[in-house]
Amino acid sequence: MWSLxxxxxxxxxxxxxxxxxxxxxxxxxxxxxxxxSERKLANYFQVNRSTVVHALDELxxxxxxxxxxxxxxxxxxxxxxxxxxxxTDWRRYLExxxxxxxxxxxxxxEWLIKHSDADVLDLYTGELPLDLIPSFSFPLLTWKHFLExxxxxxxxxxxxxxxxxxxxxKEYGFSLASESLLITxxxxxxxxxxxxxxxxxxxxxxxxxxxxxxxxxxxQAAGIRLYGVKTDQDGICLDxxxxxxxxxxxxxxxxxPSFQNPTGTTMSMDRxxxxxxxxxxxxxxxxxxxxxxxxxxVSSDQIQPLKKLDPENVLYIGSLSKILGSTTKIGWxxxxxxxxxxxxxxxxxxxxxxxxxxxxxxNLALTDKDFSDKVSHLRQNVEQRGKAVFDxxxxxxxxxVSMPKGGFYIWAKWKHGKLQQKDWAYFxxxxxxxxxxxxxxxxxDSIRINFTRVNEEKLLLFETKLLKVTxxxxxxxxxx
Length: 480
Prior knowledge:
alpha/beta; Arc Repressor Mutant, subunit A; Aspartate Aminotransferase, domain 1; Aspartate Aminotransferase, domain 2; 8-stranded mixed beta sheet; 4-stranded antiparallel beta sheet; 18 helices; about 15% strand; globular; transaminase activity; DNA-binding
Protein backbone atom coordinates (compact mmCIF):
# COMPACT_ATOMS: atom_id res chain seq x y z
CA MET A 1 0.00 0.00 0.00
CA TRP A 2 2.68 2.48 1.00
CA SER A 3 4.45 2.68 -2.34
CA LEU A 4 5.47 6.17 -3.48
CA UNK A 5 5.77 7.21 -7.11
CA UNK A 6 8.51 9.87 -7.12
CA UNK A 7 7.87 12.17 -10.07
CA UNK A 8 10.70 14.25 -11.50
CA UNK A 9 10.29 17.93 -10.65
CA UNK A 10 7.70 17.28 -7.91
CA UNK A 11 8.92 17.70 -4.30
CA UNK A 12 8.78 14.39 -2.44
CA UNK A 13 6.68 15.80 0.40
CA UNK A 14 4.02 16.85 -2.16
CA UNK A 15 3.93 13.30 -3.58
CA UNK A 16 3.44 11.95 -0.03
CA UNK A 17 0.57 14.39 0.58
CA UNK A 18 -1.15 13.40 -2.67
CA UNK A 19 -0.73 9.67 -1.92
CA UNK A 20 -2.27 9.92 1.57
CA UNK A 21 -5.09 12.14 0.27
CA UNK A 22 -5.88 9.63 -2.47
CA UNK A 23 -6.10 6.83 0.13
CA UNK A 24 -8.49 8.90 2.26
CA UNK A 25 -10.68 9.89 -0.68
CA UNK A 26 -10.80 6.34 -2.10
CA UNK A 27 -11.68 4.82 1.25
CA UNK A 28 -8.40 2.94 1.67
CA UNK A 29 -7.92 4.98 4.85
CA UNK A 30 -11.11 5.38 6.90
CA UNK A 31 -12.01 8.17 9.34
CA UNK A 32 -10.41 7.43 12.70
CA UNK A 33 -7.90 5.00 11.19
CA UNK A 34 -4.32 5.32 12.41
CA UNK A 35 -1.48 5.97 9.95
CA UNK A 36 1.88 4.22 10.32
CA SER A 37 4.47 6.04 12.46
CA GLU A 38 6.67 8.72 10.93
CA ARG A 39 9.64 6.37 11.14
CA LYS A 40 7.81 3.58 9.35
CA LEU A 41 6.57 5.91 6.62
CA ALA A 42 10.12 7.19 6.12
CA ASN A 43 11.28 3.58 5.70
CA TYR A 44 8.41 2.73 3.33
CA PHE A 45 9.11 5.76 1.14
CA GLN A 46 12.91 5.61 1.49
CA VAL A 47 13.09 9.27 2.45
CA ASN A 48 14.36 11.36 5.34
CA ARG A 49 12.00 11.45 8.31
CA SER A 50 11.89 15.26 8.13
CA THR A 51 10.26 14.98 4.67
CA VAL A 52 7.49 12.80 6.12
CA VAL A 53 7.01 15.26 9.02
CA HIS A 54 6.67 18.12 6.52
CA ALA A 55 4.00 16.25 4.55
CA LEU A 56 2.03 15.29 7.67
CA ASP A 57 2.22 18.87 8.97
CA GLU A 58 0.65 20.05 5.70
CA LEU A 59 -2.16 17.48 6.02
CA UNK A 60 -2.80 18.53 9.62
CA UNK A 61 -3.00 22.17 8.53
CA UNK A 62 -5.50 21.21 5.81
CA UNK A 63 -7.58 19.30 8.37
CA UNK A 64 -7.34 15.84 6.78
CA UNK A 65 -5.45 14.23 9.64
CA UNK A 66 -5.04 14.96 13.35
CA UNK A 67 -2.44 14.00 15.92
CA UNK A 68 -3.45 12.75 19.35
CA UNK A 69 -1.04 12.38 22.23
CA UNK A 70 -0.48 8.67 22.78
CA UNK A 71 -2.65 7.69 19.79
CA UNK A 72 -0.44 8.71 16.90
CA UNK A 73 -1.68 10.19 13.63
CA UNK A 74 -5.25 9.39 12.57
CA UNK A 75 -7.58 10.33 9.74
CA UNK A 76 -9.86 13.18 10.82
CA UNK A 77 -13.37 11.81 11.38
CA UNK A 78 -14.74 15.29 10.74
CA UNK A 79 -13.65 15.00 7.09
CA UNK A 80 -16.00 12.06 6.39
CA UNK A 81 -17.81 12.65 3.12
CA UNK A 82 -16.13 16.00 2.44
CA UNK A 83 -14.44 14.65 -0.70
CA UNK A 84 -17.85 14.41 -2.40
CA UNK A 85 -18.33 18.17 -2.12
CA UNK A 86 -17.06 20.12 -5.16
CA UNK A 87 -14.08 22.28 -4.20
CA THR A 88 -11.42 24.34 -5.91
CA ASP A 89 -8.24 22.37 -6.44
CA TRP A 90 -5.92 25.02 -5.02
CA ARG A 91 -2.93 22.71 -5.27
CA ARG A 92 -3.22 22.76 -9.06
CA TYR A 93 -2.97 26.55 -8.96
CA LEU A 94 -0.13 26.53 -6.46
CA GLU A 95 1.89 24.10 -8.61
CA UNK A 96 2.49 27.06 -10.92
CA UNK A 97 4.15 29.00 -8.11
CA UNK A 98 7.88 29.03 -8.86
CA UNK A 99 8.61 30.35 -5.36
CA UNK A 100 7.11 27.27 -3.68
CA UNK A 101 9.26 24.67 -5.46
CA UNK A 102 11.84 23.58 -2.92
CA UNK A 103 14.53 21.04 -3.73
CA UNK A 104 14.32 18.06 -1.32
CA UNK A 105 17.98 18.53 -0.40
CA UNK A 106 17.31 22.17 0.50
CA UNK A 107 14.29 21.08 2.49
CA UNK A 108 16.38 18.67 4.56
CA UNK A 109 19.12 21.26 5.12
CA GLU A 110 16.61 23.83 6.33
CA TRP A 111 15.03 21.28 8.64
CA LEU A 112 18.45 20.42 10.12
CA ILE A 113 19.27 24.11 10.60
CA LYS A 114 15.94 24.67 12.35
CA HIS A 115 16.37 21.64 14.61
CA SER A 116 20.15 21.75 14.82
CA ASP A 117 22.25 20.93 17.83
CA ALA A 118 25.90 21.69 18.59
CA ASP A 119 27.01 18.82 16.37
CA VAL A 120 25.51 20.30 13.18
CA LEU A 121 27.88 22.58 11.28
CA ASP A 122 26.03 25.08 9.08
CA LEU A 123 28.33 26.09 6.22
CA TYR A 124 25.35 26.43 3.88
CA THR A 125 23.79 29.70 5.06
CA GLY A 126 25.00 32.62 2.94
CA GLU A 127 25.70 35.21 5.58
CA LEU A 128 28.24 36.15 8.23
CA PRO A 129 27.95 34.58 11.69
CA LEU A 130 27.00 37.05 14.40
CA ASP A 131 30.44 37.00 16.02
CA LEU A 132 31.99 38.56 12.89
CA ILE A 133 29.47 41.33 12.15
CA PRO A 134 31.01 44.71 13.07
CA SER A 135 29.42 46.54 15.98
CA PHE A 136 28.53 50.21 15.61
CA SER A 137 27.46 52.61 18.34
CA PHE A 138 24.50 54.68 17.19
CA PRO A 139 23.40 57.95 18.77
CA LEU A 140 20.18 57.99 20.77
CA LEU A 141 17.40 58.14 18.19
CA THR A 142 13.80 58.99 18.99
CA TRP A 143 10.71 58.03 17.03
CA LYS A 144 10.27 61.71 16.18
CA HIS A 145 13.79 61.75 14.68
CA PHE A 146 12.77 59.10 12.14
CA LEU A 147 9.53 60.86 11.34
CA GLU A 148 11.32 64.15 10.75
CA UNK A 149 13.75 62.69 8.22
CA UNK A 150 12.57 64.22 4.96
CA UNK A 151 15.64 63.69 2.79
CA UNK A 152 14.20 60.65 1.02
CA UNK A 153 12.84 60.74 -2.50
CA UNK A 154 11.93 57.93 -4.92
CA UNK A 155 15.61 56.97 -5.24
CA UNK A 156 16.09 56.62 -1.49
CA UNK A 157 17.68 58.45 1.43
CA UNK A 158 19.95 61.15 -0.03
CA UNK A 159 22.62 61.16 2.74
CA UNK A 160 23.01 57.38 2.31
CA UNK A 161 23.41 57.72 -1.46
CA UNK A 162 26.04 60.40 -0.88
CA UNK A 163 27.87 58.16 1.60
CA UNK A 164 27.88 55.27 -0.88
CA UNK A 165 29.24 57.60 -3.54
CA UNK A 166 32.08 58.70 -1.23
CA UNK A 167 32.93 55.10 -0.29
CA UNK A 168 33.14 54.09 -3.95
CA UNK A 169 35.39 57.04 -4.70
CA LYS A 170 37.67 56.13 -1.81
CA GLU A 171 37.77 52.40 -2.64
CA TYR A 172 38.01 52.44 -6.43
CA GLY A 173 38.78 55.99 -7.48
CA PHE A 174 35.63 56.65 -9.50
CA SER A 175 32.43 58.43 -8.65
CA LEU A 176 28.85 57.17 -8.61
CA ALA A 177 26.70 60.30 -8.68
CA SER A 178 23.98 60.23 -6.02
CA GLU A 179 21.31 60.70 -8.71
CA SER A 180 22.55 57.51 -10.41
CA LEU A 181 22.00 55.44 -7.23
CA LEU A 182 18.74 53.71 -6.37
CA ILE A 183 18.60 52.39 -2.80
CA THR A 184 16.91 48.99 -2.54
CA UNK A 185 15.95 46.64 0.26
CA UNK A 186 18.81 44.29 -0.60
CA UNK A 187 20.45 43.20 -3.83
CA UNK A 188 17.59 40.87 -4.77
CA UNK A 189 15.09 43.74 -4.92
CA UNK A 190 17.37 45.49 -7.40
CA UNK A 191 17.44 42.31 -9.47
CA UNK A 192 13.66 41.95 -9.24
CA UNK A 193 13.09 45.51 -10.46
CA UNK A 194 15.42 44.95 -13.42
CA UNK A 195 13.50 41.82 -14.41
CA UNK A 196 10.19 43.67 -14.19
CA UNK A 197 11.21 46.84 -16.05
CA UNK A 198 14.08 46.06 -18.43
CA UNK A 199 13.29 42.46 -19.40
CA UNK A 200 10.17 40.65 -20.57
CA UNK A 201 8.88 37.10 -20.37
CA UNK A 202 10.72 34.98 -22.93
CA UNK A 203 13.88 37.14 -22.97
CA UNK A 204 17.25 35.39 -22.79
CA UNK A 205 19.93 36.20 -20.24
CA UNK A 206 23.50 34.86 -20.17
CA UNK A 207 24.99 33.99 -16.79
CA UNK A 208 28.07 32.22 -15.50
CA UNK A 209 27.96 28.45 -15.05
CA UNK A 210 27.91 27.72 -12.16
CA UNK A 211 26.06 30.72 -10.73
CA UNK A 212 23.94 31.52 -7.67
CA UNK A 213 21.38 32.97 -10.11
CA UNK A 214 20.32 29.39 -10.96
CA UNK A 215 19.06 29.05 -7.38
CA UNK A 216 16.80 32.14 -7.53
CA UNK A 217 13.14 31.44 -8.45
CA UNK A 218 12.52 35.03 -9.60
CA UNK A 219 13.77 34.26 -13.13
CA GLN A 220 11.39 31.35 -13.62
CA ALA A 221 8.56 33.41 -12.15
CA ALA A 222 9.29 36.22 -14.63
CA GLY A 223 9.60 33.81 -17.57
CA ILE A 224 13.26 34.69 -18.20
CA ARG A 225 15.41 32.09 -19.97
CA LEU A 226 18.83 31.61 -18.36
CA TYR A 227 21.75 30.35 -20.45
CA GLY A 228 24.84 29.22 -18.57
CA VAL A 229 28.27 30.04 -19.98
CA LYS A 230 31.26 28.03 -18.82
CA THR A 231 33.97 29.71 -16.74
CA ASP A 232 37.66 29.19 -16.08
CA GLN A 233 40.14 30.58 -13.55
CA ASP A 234 39.90 34.03 -15.19
CA GLY A 235 36.11 34.23 -15.22
CA ILE A 236 33.41 33.82 -17.86
CA CYS A 237 34.71 32.35 -21.15
CA LEU A 238 34.15 34.92 -23.88
CA ASP A 239 34.19 32.57 -26.87
CA UNK A 240 31.36 30.59 -25.30
CA UNK A 241 29.55 33.78 -24.33
CA UNK A 242 29.65 35.11 -27.87
CA UNK A 243 28.14 31.86 -29.19
CA UNK A 244 25.32 32.09 -26.64
CA UNK A 245 24.70 35.75 -27.55
CA UNK A 246 24.38 34.85 -31.25
CA UNK A 247 22.32 31.69 -30.79
CA UNK A 248 19.81 32.97 -28.25
CA UNK A 249 19.56 36.72 -28.88
CA UNK A 250 20.70 37.48 -25.37
CA UNK A 251 19.26 40.70 -23.90
CA UNK A 252 21.58 40.99 -20.88
CA UNK A 253 24.75 39.44 -19.44
CA UNK A 254 24.76 38.94 -15.66
CA UNK A 255 28.06 38.33 -13.90
CA UNK A 256 29.51 38.26 -10.39
CA PRO A 257 33.14 39.05 -11.33
CA SER A 258 34.63 39.50 -7.85
CA PHE A 259 34.68 36.50 -5.48
CA GLN A 260 32.02 34.79 -7.52
CA ASN A 261 29.18 32.95 -5.83
CA PRO A 262 29.59 29.97 -5.64
CA THR A 263 33.14 29.37 -6.94
CA GLY A 264 34.98 32.27 -5.24
CA THR A 265 36.73 33.00 -8.56
CA THR A 266 37.83 36.57 -9.36
CA MET A 267 37.74 37.67 -12.99
CA SER A 268 41.10 38.88 -14.28
CA MET A 269 41.50 42.49 -15.44
CA ASP A 270 42.19 41.39 -19.03
CA ARG A 271 38.99 39.32 -19.04
CA UNK A 272 37.02 42.23 -17.56
CA UNK A 273 38.18 44.59 -20.30
CA UNK A 274 37.45 42.02 -22.99
CA UNK A 275 33.97 41.33 -21.57
CA UNK A 276 33.14 45.03 -21.59
CA UNK A 277 34.38 45.31 -25.18
CA UNK A 278 32.35 42.29 -26.34
CA UNK A 279 29.12 43.57 -24.81
CA UNK A 280 29.71 47.03 -26.26
CA UNK A 281 30.05 45.49 -29.72
CA UNK A 282 26.72 43.69 -29.36
CA UNK A 283 25.10 46.61 -27.50
CA UNK A 284 24.11 44.37 -24.62
CA UNK A 285 24.08 45.71 -21.05
CA UNK A 286 26.01 43.98 -18.29
CA UNK A 287 24.57 43.47 -14.83
CA UNK A 288 27.45 43.40 -12.35
CA UNK A 289 26.76 41.86 -8.95
CA UNK A 290 29.41 43.20 -6.56
CA UNK A 291 27.89 42.49 -3.15
CA UNK A 292 31.18 41.15 -1.71
CA UNK A 293 33.14 44.27 -2.70
CA UNK A 294 34.16 45.14 0.88
CA UNK A 295 35.48 41.65 1.60
CA UNK A 296 38.56 41.70 -0.64
CA UNK A 297 41.83 40.12 0.52
CA VAL A 298 43.89 41.85 -2.18
CA SER A 299 44.38 45.47 -3.19
CA SER A 300 41.40 47.21 -4.80
CA ASP A 301 43.74 48.17 -7.65
CA GLN A 302 43.71 44.52 -8.76
CA ILE A 303 39.91 44.33 -8.77
CA GLN A 304 38.40 47.22 -10.69
CA PRO A 305 34.61 47.00 -11.11
CA LEU A 306 33.21 46.62 -14.61
CA LYS A 307 31.22 49.75 -13.78
CA LYS A 308 34.44 51.76 -13.68
CA LEU A 309 35.47 50.38 -17.09
CA ASP A 310 32.11 51.17 -18.70
CA PRO A 311 29.88 53.47 -16.59
CA GLU A 312 27.08 53.72 -19.17
CA ASN A 313 26.69 50.08 -20.17
CA VAL A 314 27.01 48.42 -16.75
CA LEU A 315 24.23 48.14 -14.19
CA TYR A 316 26.01 47.85 -10.85
CA ILE A 317 24.52 46.15 -7.77
CA GLY A 318 26.11 46.68 -4.36
CA SER A 319 25.06 45.79 -0.84
CA LEU A 320 25.86 46.31 2.82
CA SER A 321 24.01 43.16 3.88
CA LYS A 322 27.13 41.01 3.49
CA ILE A 323 29.01 42.97 6.16
CA LEU A 324 26.22 44.35 8.36
CA GLY A 325 24.03 41.23 8.33
CA SER A 326 21.15 40.16 6.10
CA THR A 327 18.53 41.79 8.35
CA THR A 328 19.92 45.20 7.35
CA LYS A 329 18.50 44.66 3.85
CA ILE A 330 20.30 47.56 2.21
CA GLY A 331 21.46 47.39 -1.38
CA TRP A 332 21.79 49.76 -4.28
CA UNK A 333 21.74 49.86 -8.03
CA UNK A 334 23.84 52.27 -10.06
CA UNK A 335 22.40 52.83 -13.53
CA UNK A 336 21.87 55.69 -15.95
CA UNK A 337 19.59 58.26 -14.32
CA UNK A 338 16.76 57.62 -16.79
CA UNK A 339 16.86 53.90 -16.00
CA UNK A 340 16.84 54.44 -12.24
CA UNK A 341 13.91 56.82 -12.51
CA UNK A 342 11.90 54.18 -14.37
CA UNK A 343 12.84 51.52 -11.81
CA UNK A 344 11.92 53.82 -8.92
CA UNK A 345 8.59 54.62 -10.57
CA UNK A 346 7.87 50.91 -11.06
CA UNK A 347 8.66 50.21 -7.40
CA UNK A 348 6.28 52.96 -6.34
CA UNK A 349 3.50 51.58 -8.55
CA UNK A 350 4.03 48.13 -7.00
CA UNK A 351 3.84 49.81 -3.57
CA UNK A 352 7.28 48.53 -2.56
CA UNK A 353 7.97 51.38 -0.18
CA UNK A 354 11.47 51.64 1.25
CA UNK A 355 11.67 52.05 5.02
CA UNK A 356 13.75 54.94 6.35
CA UNK A 357 14.91 52.87 9.35
CA UNK A 358 17.54 50.59 7.72
CA UNK A 359 18.65 53.43 5.42
CA UNK A 360 19.32 55.74 8.33
CA UNK A 361 21.15 53.03 10.29
CA UNK A 362 23.21 52.07 7.22
CA ASN A 363 24.23 55.70 6.75
CA LEU A 364 25.21 55.98 10.41
CA ALA A 365 27.43 52.91 9.95
CA LEU A 366 29.05 54.26 6.76
CA THR A 367 29.75 57.62 8.38
CA ASP A 368 31.09 56.11 11.61
CA LYS A 369 34.63 57.38 12.14
CA ASP A 370 35.82 53.80 12.72
CA PHE A 371 33.99 52.26 9.74
CA SER A 372 37.14 51.66 7.66
CA ASP A 373 39.04 50.17 10.62
CA LYS A 374 36.16 47.85 11.51
CA VAL A 375 35.79 46.63 7.92
CA SER A 376 39.55 46.11 7.72
CA HIS A 377 39.43 44.03 10.91
CA LEU A 378 36.51 42.04 9.46
CA ARG A 379 38.50 41.32 6.29
CA GLN A 380 41.43 40.02 8.33
CA ASN A 381 39.22 37.68 10.34
CA VAL A 382 37.38 36.42 7.25
CA GLU A 383 40.63 35.82 5.38
CA GLN A 384 42.08 33.96 8.37
CA ARG A 385 39.08 31.64 8.48
CA GLY A 386 39.25 31.17 4.72
CA LYS A 387 42.90 30.13 4.87
CA ALA A 388 42.23 27.69 7.69
CA VAL A 389 39.40 25.97 5.76
CA PHE A 390 41.50 26.02 2.58
CA ASP A 391 44.39 24.30 4.38
CA UNK A 392 42.07 21.51 5.57
CA UNK A 393 40.77 20.90 2.06
CA UNK A 394 44.08 21.34 0.31
CA UNK A 395 45.75 18.49 2.19
CA UNK A 396 43.03 16.05 1.13
CA UNK A 397 43.90 14.34 -2.15
CA UNK A 398 40.23 13.82 -3.05
CA UNK A 399 39.35 17.52 -3.31
CA UNK A 400 40.53 20.20 -5.72
CA VAL A 401 40.40 23.69 -4.22
CA SER A 402 41.75 27.23 -4.69
CA MET A 403 42.05 30.00 -2.11
CA PRO A 404 39.71 32.88 -3.09
CA LYS A 405 40.82 36.52 -3.12
CA GLY A 406 37.82 37.61 -1.08
CA GLY A 407 34.19 36.93 -0.24
CA PHE A 408 32.61 34.11 1.78
CA TYR A 409 32.98 31.00 -0.29
CA ILE A 410 35.39 28.19 -1.10
CA TRP A 411 34.48 25.85 -3.95
CA ALA A 412 35.79 22.30 -3.57
CA LYS A 413 35.65 19.90 -6.52
CA TRP A 414 35.57 16.14 -6.08
CA LYS A 415 38.45 14.85 -8.19
CA HIS A 416 36.86 11.50 -9.03
CA GLY A 417 33.91 12.65 -11.10
CA LYS A 418 30.22 12.96 -10.36
CA LEU A 419 28.87 12.61 -6.82
CA GLN A 420 25.87 10.31 -6.49
CA GLN A 421 22.67 10.95 -4.54
CA LYS A 422 23.84 8.77 -1.64
CA ASP A 423 27.11 10.74 -1.55
CA TRP A 424 25.23 13.98 -0.98
CA ALA A 425 23.23 12.23 1.75
CA TYR A 426 26.45 11.57 3.69
CA PHE A 427 26.88 15.31 4.25
CA UNK A 428 23.43 15.47 5.84
CA UNK A 429 24.02 12.36 7.92
CA UNK A 430 27.23 13.83 9.33
CA UNK A 431 25.60 17.20 10.00
CA UNK A 432 27.98 18.95 7.60
CA UNK A 433 25.68 21.36 5.78
CA UNK A 434 27.09 22.59 2.48
CA UNK A 435 25.58 23.85 -0.79
CA UNK A 436 25.89 21.17 -3.51
CA UNK A 437 26.95 22.18 -7.01
CA UNK A 438 23.62 21.10 -8.55
CA UNK A 439 22.05 24.15 -6.86
CA UNK A 440 24.08 26.36 -9.20
CA UNK A 441 24.11 24.51 -12.51
CA UNK A 442 24.16 21.08 -14.09
CA UNK A 443 27.36 19.71 -12.54
CA UNK A 444 27.27 17.39 -9.54
CA ASP A 445 30.92 17.26 -8.55
CA SER A 446 31.54 20.20 -6.19
CA ILE A 447 30.51 21.77 -2.89
CA ARG A 448 30.26 25.39 -1.77
CA ILE A 449 31.44 26.15 1.75
CA ASN A 450 30.79 29.39 3.65
CA PHE A 451 34.14 29.44 5.44
CA THR A 452 33.25 32.49 7.57
CA ARG A 453 31.17 30.15 9.73
CA VAL A 454 34.18 28.05 10.74
CA ASN A 455 35.87 29.73 13.68
CA GLU A 456 38.92 28.35 15.48
CA GLU A 457 36.78 26.27 17.86
CA LYS A 458 34.83 24.65 14.98
CA LEU A 459 37.82 23.97 12.72
CA LEU A 460 38.58 20.53 14.16
CA LEU A 461 34.88 19.59 13.99
CA PHE A 462 34.83 20.66 10.33
CA GLU A 463 37.93 18.60 9.51
CA THR A 464 36.60 15.55 11.35
CA LYS A 465 33.23 15.67 9.59
CA LEU A 466 34.75 16.26 6.15
CA LEU A 467 37.17 13.36 6.61
CA LYS A 468 34.29 11.05 7.54
CA VAL A 469 32.22 12.10 4.52
CA THR A 470 35.24 11.83 2.20
CA UNK A 471 36.04 8.33 3.48
CA UNK A 472 32.43 7.16 2.96
CA UNK A 473 32.30 8.52 -0.60
CA UNK A 474 35.69 6.97 -1.40
CA UNK A 475 34.63 3.55 -0.06
CA UNK A 476 31.44 3.66 -2.12
CA UNK A 477 33.38 4.59 -5.25
CA UNK A 478 35.79 1.69 -4.76
CA UNK A 479 32.91 -0.84 -4.57
CA UNK A 480 31.33 0.24 -7.86
